[in-house]
Fold this protein.
Amino acid sequence: MAYRRDKEEALRWRRWLDASRDRLLDCGVPSMAFEDQRTWGYFIEHGQYPLDEATVIIDVDEMPKEQALKLGEFLEEDEKPGCDPSFALNRLQYLLGRGKHAR
């Protein structure tokens, strides 16, 4: 049964990615940060990709405000199963004064 669940999860990921790709690119997220579910999960859990500070490709702390706002809105609306955007979303909300950080 594990094979079937893996196949179903891969299909869910592919559908989510097909529906989200253009919007993520519009948010300034490089395709490398969502090339697979594991990489995407890493990005939203850490708020940057990759964690090695010498080669950071994207960091929510360094995003232009317009892109940060778009990404924050995307993560607030996102329903991707199995991914918890808690750190990236929380950090973006803090930087933008949204959500529980609203002033």
Notes: The longest strand covers residues 48-49. Helices lie at 2-26, 37-46, 65-77, 86-96. The two ends are 49 Å apart (CA to CA). Residues 2-26 form the longest helix (25 residues).
